[in-house]
Amino acid sequence: xxxxxxxxxxATPRLAPRITTFREGxxxxxxxxxxxxxxxxxxxxxxxxxxxxxxxxPGEIVEIQTGSFSSARRKLExxxxxxxxxxxxxxxxxxxxxxxxxxxxxxxxxxxxRRGLALDLFDELVSIPGLIAAPNFRIELVxxxxxxxxxxxxxxxxxxxxxxxxxxxxxxxxxxxTLRVDSPADLLDLLPAGMPEPFxxxxxxxxxxxxxxxxxxxxxxLEKCGALVRDAPRGRHAAYGRAPIR
Length: 246
Known about the structure:
This protein is of the alpha+beta class and 246 residues long. It contains 7 helices and 10 strands.
C-alpha cells in the first residue's frame, strides 16, 4: 500500500472515510486477505467450534492478533484442543506516524524513532505462555513496515496517561520478514545473539536496551513454557539456563 504523502499544490488528502468506515483495522484486514490468498480453499470469517475465525484452511486455522493476546486466550485454548492453529502477530520494525485532524485531513508524516524487535512478542505472549508447547499451535511473527494514523482525542474521552492524540488505524506498507515459532525451543532464537549462559534479566536489558519489564516477561514466558530453567542466582538476580533436551 503506498505511503501517504503531502504534495505542494495538490489538494489536502482526506483519510477519514477509510479510517472510520470499518470496525476492523486496516492492518488486520490486510493480513487476513494476504493469508487467505495463500491458502487454497481458505474460508474467511468461518465459524469453528462456536468461534468466528479469521481464516479457516483445510489443515489449519489462521488467527490474526494485532494487539493483546489476552482477549483471544479462551478462543485459542479451545480451538487448539481439536485443530491446528497459527497465530499471526505483526511487529512494526519500521513505523511512520501520520497525523490527521478531526475531519481526516493530513497534517504531517514522520518516521517513529522506535523500532520493534521480534523480542516484543513476549509483551503479548505473557498472556498465554504455555500454549506454545501445544503440538497443534504455532506463532508466526510478521515483521512489518507500517503507518500509524493518529488523530485528535474525541470530546469526553479520557486516558489513564494524558495525551494529545489517539490511534485511529494501522496500515501495512510492507512485510520485511516472517519468523515461525513452532515450539518453546524456537522462542530461544528470538533472544539477542551473544547472550551469556546462563543469563539474567539485567543481561537482557543490557543487550537490547529495552525495559526491565519486558526482560522479566521474556524470562517468565520461557520458564513457563519449559524452554528455560532457573540456575544458581547471580548476585541479587535470578539466572536462567536452557532446559535440558528431552
